[in-house]
Each structure stands twice: as C-alpha cells, then as structure tokens.
C-alpha cells in the first residue's frame, strides 16, 4: 500500500464521522447529532450523582463520577476541536503540501513514510487496546453480579453498563435489554472518539517530526557540499522556508490542542484520583477480585490519555532542539561570511523550543505527566483521610 498521508484511515473515518474533516456533507449535522447524545447522557449521569450524593453511598458515587467526568472531558474536547476546525483544515492542507513536496525526493519520501507507518501503528494499537479495556470494564459489573448470584448473594437489581438516573422503570424486559444495547454502543462510540482525538495529536506531532528529520538531512547534505558555494545559497533559502513552515505548523498544533490539553490535565487528574480512591476502598471492603480487576483496567485506560498527550508534547520539544544541533554541526566555518550569518540567525531562531501548552499556562511534557500523578496521589491521600 502506497502511503500518501500521515493520518491513518482509522483517524480519518472517525473525524469524518464527527464532521470535522473538510468537505464532509452535512458536517454540522454530524457534530451536533453526536454532541446531542453526549448532552443527554451527561444529564442523566449528573442526575444520578445528585440523586446518590450521600456519605453512605460514597464508593458508588466515586464509581459514577469516574465515567461522568470522562464523558465531560470528551464534551470539552469536541467543543475545542469544533471551534478551531479552520485551524485543523489548515493543518491538513499543510500536510498535503508537505507530502506533495516529498514525492520529488526519494529520501524525503522515505523519512515521511517511516513517520506515517509509526503513526498508523500507534493509532491502531491505541484503538485496539482501548476497545478491549472498555469492553472488559463494561462487562465487569455483569460478571460481578453473576458471581454474587452464584454465591447466593441477595442481588436482585439489574444494572446498566454505566450509572444513569432514568425517570422511568428500567429493570423490566425488553426495556432493560434495549437500554443495555444502546448504552453499550454509545459508550463504545464515545471511547472510540476519545481514542481518535488522542491519536490525532500524536499523528500531527509525528508529521512535524518527519519534517524536522528532512531539515536535518538537508543540513547534512549542505555539509557534504560545502565547497559548492553557488548551490548552498539556494539550499539555505529552502531550509529557511521549511523552518518557517515547521514553526507555523507547530503553532497551529498548539492552537488546536491548547484548550484540549488543559481540559485533559484537569479532568484526568480528577478521574485518576477517583479510580485510585475507589481501588483503596475496594481493598478495605475486601471486594471481589473482579471489582479490583475492573478498577485496575479503568485506571490503566484513563492513565494512557494524559500519557499520550504528554508524550506528544515531549517529542515535539525534543525534535525542535535537533534543528539547532544539525545547523551547528554543518560545516558553516567553510562557507562564506554571508552564509555564516544565515546560519547564526537560524541557530538563534531554533533556540525557541516548540511545545504544546495546557491553556498557555504550562508545557505538556513528561514532567506534566509526573505532576498529574503526584497531584492524584495527594488527592487520594486526602480523600482516604476523610473517608
């Protein structure tokens, strides 16, 4: 298969379903349709939370808050993506332009193909793992109830896949079965969209990473042909244009994901805190092993979300430093003084580190991920002391 874009087919289909992809018919209908279902589910989720806002049901409340906050995170992400859809369309146009330019040079095409293959692999891997974790999490309650019934526990209520407070009777057939199927499909769809949005940022960073590799490769060629002064001037001009495109592309990524990253940091900190505390409660209450496994799976799945965006931010910052290194390692001292000045300006401009920020307040990196985990553990300790 000939690769012509860094965005994998899985991501493209998901973005077309949301109406974010350019030239999709009735894109607003797609987006508002899915957002309407999110709002409806969120209403019944928060209704359940307010209905069970009691100390005696604290563990049940924490379990409900975990899924509810994750749904809220998806809602805010989609709002941010829709508001910046023109920026996203510009990013896609720049990506197409980069791939057209790569077709003229085999080495450039090879470098970009490597990044595209990595993007496809991680997108499919994240999607597969997330789907498996979600299915196991949703089936966890039914497995727990099945075990309890077999052990002669007095369990008569029929639970929905997620905690919802519906204003009608839900335990009678066939209403219950229909609700289970609809909610199961919606949760799987919600998790699919969430995974697609997480994979998108990693894909865009890998694309700009490929462009940086091309730039470093060209500087190496300039070093090998340093004596051919009449050709190096045009090569420097091409490098300056490519560097400007890389900076603009990274700034567009920052515009697109700054608000999303902020919501990711806040919501994932809360969700990881809730899950950690629920796990501790389950240990104290000597809950069944299925409860613990379900909690651990949810914890790992949620923890992957901030890790992916922090990985993307860290990788972008790391690759941006390579431009200054490649520029300095070129044979600039064998070039005429006029071209040396160009080198100096490029090194100075490369000192500005490319990064993704969370609401313009902090850079998203591995340090941010560590801070999220530290904050979550601190909140777990406070809740444990209050419980």
From TrEMBL:
It is a multi-pass membrane protein. GO terms for biological process: signal transduction. InterPro entries: 7tm6_olfct_rcpt. Keywords: Cell membrane, Membrane, Olfaction, Receptor, Sensory transduction, Transducer, Transmembrane, Transmembrane helix. It holds the Pfam family 7tm_6. It is found in: Cell membrane. GO terms for molecular function: odorant binding; olfactory receptor activity. The chain crosses the membrane at residues 28-49, 118-139, 178-205, 256-284, 296-313. GO terms for cellular component: plasma membrane. Its main location: membrane. Belongs to the insect chemoreceptor superfamily. Heteromeric odorant receptor channel (TC 1.A.69) family. This is Odorant receptor.
């Amino acid at each position: 298969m000939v690769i012509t874009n860094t965005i994998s087919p899985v991501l493209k289909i998901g973005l077309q379903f949301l109406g974010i992809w350019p030239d999709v018919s009735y894109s607003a209908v797609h987006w508002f349709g899915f957002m309407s279902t999110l709002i409806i589910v969120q209403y019944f989720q928060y209704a359940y939370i307010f209905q069970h806002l009691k100390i005696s049901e604290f563990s049940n409340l924490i379990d409900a808050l975990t899924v509810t906050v994750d749904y809220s995170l998806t809602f805010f992400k989609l709002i941010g993506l829709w508001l910046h859809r023109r920026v996203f369309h510009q990013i896609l146009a720049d990506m197409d332009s980069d791939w057209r330019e790569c077709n003229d040079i085999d080495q450039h095409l090879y470098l970009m193909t490597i990044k595209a293959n990595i993007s496809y692999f991680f997108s499919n891997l994240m999607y597969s793992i997330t789907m498996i974790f979600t299915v196991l999490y949703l089936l966890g309650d039914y497995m727990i109830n099945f075990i309890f019934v077999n052990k002669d526990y007095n369990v008569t209520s029929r639970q929905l896949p997620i905690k919802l407070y519906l204003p009608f009777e839900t335990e009678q057939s066939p209403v219950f079965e229909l609700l289970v199927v609809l909610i199961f499909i919606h949760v799987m769809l919600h998790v699919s969209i969430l995974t697609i949005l997480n994979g998108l940022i990693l894909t865009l960073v890998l694309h700009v990473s490929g462009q940086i590799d091309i730039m470093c490769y060209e500087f190496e060629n300039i070093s090998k042909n340093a004596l051919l002064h009449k050709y190096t001037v045009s090569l420097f001009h091409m490098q300056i244009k490519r560097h400007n495109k890389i900076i603009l592309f990274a700034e567009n990524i920052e515009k697109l994901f700054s608000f999303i990253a902020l919501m990711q940091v806040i919501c994932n900190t809360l969700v990881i805190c809730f899950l950690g505390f629920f796990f501790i409660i389950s240990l104290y209450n000597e809950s069944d092993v299925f409860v613990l496994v379900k909690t651990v799976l949810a914890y790992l799945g949620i923890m992957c979300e901030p890790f992916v965006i922090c990985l993307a931010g860290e990788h972008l910052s790391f690759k941006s430093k390579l431009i200054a290194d490649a520029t300095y390692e070129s044979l600039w001292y064998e070039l005429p003084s006029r071209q040396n000045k160009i080198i100096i300006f490029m090194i100075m401009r490369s000192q500005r580190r490319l990064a993704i920020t969370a609401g313009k307040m902090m850079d998203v990196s591995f340090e941010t991920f560590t801070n999220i985990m530290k904050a979550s553990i601190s909140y777990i300790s406070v809740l444990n002391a209050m419980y």
